[in-house]
Amino acid sequence: MALYSEKVMDHFTNPRNVGKIEDADGIGEVGNAQCGDIMKIYIKVKDDIITDVKFNTFGCASAIASSSMATEMIKGQPISKALELSNKAVVEALDGLPPVKVHCSVLAEEAVKAAVKDYYDKNGIFYEPELLAP
Ligand code: FES
Ligand code: FES
Q1: Theoretical Cys-Cys bridge with 87: which of 50, 106, 115, 125, CB 3.0 to 4.6 Å?
Q2: 102 CB under 6 A from ligand 2?
Q3: Bridge-partner residues for 55, per DSSP?
Q4: 116: domain CATH number?
Q5: Tell me: the pLDDT tens digits for 58-72?
Q6: Counted domains in the chain
Q7: Is the shortest distance between the CB of 105 and ligand 1 below 6 Å?
Q8: Active site residue 104
Q9: What is the pTM of this model?
């Protein structure tokens, strides 16, 4: 079996939603101290819907594929849906990641939550802390 699924290869070589949103409503930046990967996710929000999302990831193939997939999964979705996005769901959507690379998908989940938290904080929106816990 190949180490990486076709979907991972596809999202790594042709990542979706790469870039930066200049007037983002929320920005989430997370990192993994062990491997040094950094992931940044930008969101635009209108009426509680994530209307646009972009990412920049300095990291391994799995981290890039995970961010690409995560952005596709939350784009156009209500915030509540985006907060339900688990790293497991990202891994499943990618048809799996090698076990040592599962932590890369955790970054994607954390980055989405961090972006929503930033949006909530900037707009003085109250939220239950557990909602945004990793
Ligand atoms: Fe080097 Fe993830 S381990 S980029
Ligand atoms: Fe660290 Fe991929 S190796 S996020």
Answers
A1: 106
A2: no
A3: 18, 41
A4: 3.90.1010.10
A5: 999 999 999 999 999
A6: 1
A7: no
A8: yes
A9: 0.94
